[in-house]
UniProtKB/TrEMBL annotation:
This is ABC transporter substrate-binding protein. Residues 25-44 are annotated as: Disordered. Residues 1-19 form the signal peptide. It comes from Lachnotalea glycerini. Keywords: Amino-acid transport, Signal, Transport. Gene3D superfamilies: 3.40.50.2300. GO terms for biological process: amino acid transport. Coiled coil: none annotated. Residues 50-386 form the Leucine-binding protein domain. The keyword Signal applies.
Length: 392
């Protein structure tokens, strides 16, 4: 590992902002500390394969990282208890080492260096976009396979060793525009987004372009920054002929937006990106978010997810969200790559990524393009009677 370059990168990374593919429900504090080793190898095996993880386990975005970590822990435990992973003529046990980056770029670099010093073989991370952007070139320098469960900015996969399990920001914006205009026949749509956030602006820009292409109209696009009250933006939206509101923001901001919208007697339906996942655990009054629809690759109510949900709830006393499912699927992607490559050599694992298909919680037959993008379908989740439901 070239420490000089990494120390220089640490200072550079501090200027990057953070973002995540989107929101999470509040989690218990179980196993949520930093510098944690979990899913420790057990049973007999020839070697141990170390999966490193980076994400926020403390701070405002902790729910995202805790979910990914806990989902990955479930997968590691399952695989090890089933005998491990057959890699050529060896049988390997998995070990998960997860570092807290507090969703900041500088701490992500520190976490990356710590994991590399600790023998990381592959990286499940980072969880948030800014952190991903801070370490992608370091991972390229070390030629290590990197799979982000939820970093959604398009440029994250610029290097050929980096892959993404979640949807990109542009894909989310385009998908929701098609759903609202083509499927639901809305023509006039208002937008509220966070202009200081890469995730929010990325989804919004793609959404706006697709709406125009489909013949719709953005009646107003209202931006906000950290710590800002939403009264001005919502009052402006109320004064337009909008038929619906699209808010590509995280669940914590979304909870404040829908609450203030209710206070202003705004009854327009809300639509969100996958950052809305977990909003029901955040709003004080679930009625304020009734009828809202958002994108997600995972729905805990699906029959195919029943075993995972039961195991997760037994382990952590909470229902898993999409980020937990991303963490779980990420481990199984690595398992498939190991089996395909028949070796732990990084170059072979990277090559194997474009040759595998994985039936996971977030998609059936998940595959990856040479550009690092996943091939899988999105789901629409609607809040009905204070519960998440598959949108019809």
């Amino acid at each position: 590992m070239k420490k000089v370059k990494k120390i220089m990168a640490l200072g550079l990374a501090a200027t990057l902002t953070f973002a995540s593919m989107t929101g999470c429900s509040s989690k218990s504090d179980t196993n949520s500390g930093s510098n944690s080793d979990s899913g420790t190898a057990s049973g007999t095996s020839d070697e141990t394969f170390v999966i490193g993880g980076i994400g926020p386990l403390t701070g405002d975005a902790a729910s995202y990282g805790i979910s990914v970590k806990q989902g990955a822990e479930i997968a590691v435990k399952e695989i090890n208890e089933a005998g491990g992973v057959k890699v050529g003529d060896k049988t390997m046990q998995l070990e998960l080492k997860f570092e807290d980056d507090q969703a900041t770029a500088d701490k992500a670099v520190t976490a990356y260096n710590t994991l590399m010093d600790g023998g990381m073989n592959v990286l499940l991370g980072c969880v948030t976009t800014g952190s991903c952007l801070a370490v992608v070139d370091l991972a390229k320098e070390d030629n290590i396979l990197m799979l982000t469960p939820s970093g959604s900015a398009a440029e994250i996969t610029k290097n050929d060793n980096v892959f993404r399990l979640c949807f990109t920001d542009p894909l989310q914006g385009e998908t929701m525009a098609e759903h609202m205009i083509t499927d639901l026949h809305y023509k006039n749509i208002a937008v509220i987004y966070k202009n200081s956030d890469e995730y929010s602006t990325g989804v919004y820009e793609a959404f706006a372009a697709k709406v125009a292409e489909l013949g719709g109209t953005i009646t107003t696009a209202e931006a906000f920054a950290d710590g800002e009250d939403f009264n001005t933006q919502l009052t402006s939206i109320k004064g337009t002929d909008a038929e619906a509101i699209f808010a590509p923001i995280y669940y914590n901001d979304a909870a404040h937006v829908v609450t203030q919208a209710a206070d202003l007697s705004i009854t327009l339906p809300f639509f969100g990106s996958d950052g809305w996942d977990g909003i029901l655990d955040t709003v004080t009054d679930k009625a304020t978010v009734e009828g809202a629809t958002f994108l997600s690759p995972f729905f805990s109510g699906e029959e195919t997810a029943a075993d995972f949900v039961a195991n997760y709830e037994n382990a952590y006393n909470t229902t898993p969200d999409q980020f937990a499912a991303d963490g779980y699927d990420g481990v199984y992607v690595f398992k498939s790559a190991l089996e395909q490559a028949k070796t732990t050599e990084s170059a072979d694992l990277i090559s194997a990524m474009t040759q595998i298909k994985v039936d996971g919680l977030t998609g059936t037959g998940i595959s990856f393009s040479a550009t690092g993008e996943p091939q899988k379908a999105a789901k629409f989740i609607k809040i009905e009677n204070g519960e998440y439901a598959a949108a019809k």
